[in-house]
Amino acid sequence: MKDNKTVKALAWVVRTLLYLLQKFIQYTNRNTQVLASITGESYCKSAKMAIKFEFSHMKTVFILNTLGDFFLFLAKVFITVLCMAICYAICKYSDNPTMIFTPVLCTCGVTFCVAFYIIEILELTVDTIFMAFLYEDTFMLTERSRGVESFAPKILSKLLSDEGKTASEGRSEMVV
User: What is the CA radius of gyration of the chain?
Assistant: First the structure.
């Protein structure tokens, strides 16, 4: 039974599907908590809104998350390399440069860990701002049609206006 390739392939498929489900639930849970804090609604109602937001603005969510994750990863790497270079320079040009590798490696590890958690906070901030924009864009249409000014910065409104035009047909189903 251990050597059966069909069982191994089926186990791999199930494991992959469960991994994808876990990532979707984690992402939705974060957006649900953000929406619950924005709206003051219950967790279940906020989860329903978050899932509708994710599917109705799927293109924008994908682009924002992909580009955001890429640039945040580059920021982590840049911070780590910069601190590693500074530590190398300090160790190399000190009075007794006998040990360079160990301090640089330790600095690299600690710096990456600190940068990872700080950048995660930044990523949560970006997601919160994006969800607040989606909430305003979806549920405050009637206020804007009466002439009430949007709270979103003009640059953000302009950047996401093309996506908003394509998703305007789906807004009637968005009301929870």
Answer: 23
3-state secondary structure of 94: coil
Q: Record the pTM.
A: 0.65
DSSP code of residue 2? T
3-state secondary structure 118-171: HHHHHHHHHHHHHHHHHHHHHHCHHHHHCCCCCCCCHHHHHHHHHHHHHCHHHH
Which secondary-structure segment (H or E) carries 1?
A: none
Dump pLDDT digits (tens) for 7-34: 899 999 999 999 999 988 988 898 899 8
pLDDT digits (tens, 9 = 90+) for 94-141: 777 677 888 888 999 999 999 999 999 998 888 888 888 888 777 766
Angstrom distance (rounded) from CA 15 to CA 11? 6
Rounded Cα–Cα distance for residues 176 and 143 (Å): 17
Inter-residue contact 80 to 115 (CB < 8 Å): yes
Domain boundaries, the chain: 5-173
Tell me the C-alpha distance between 51 and 155, whole Å: 26
Rounded CA-CA distance 101/77 in Å is 19
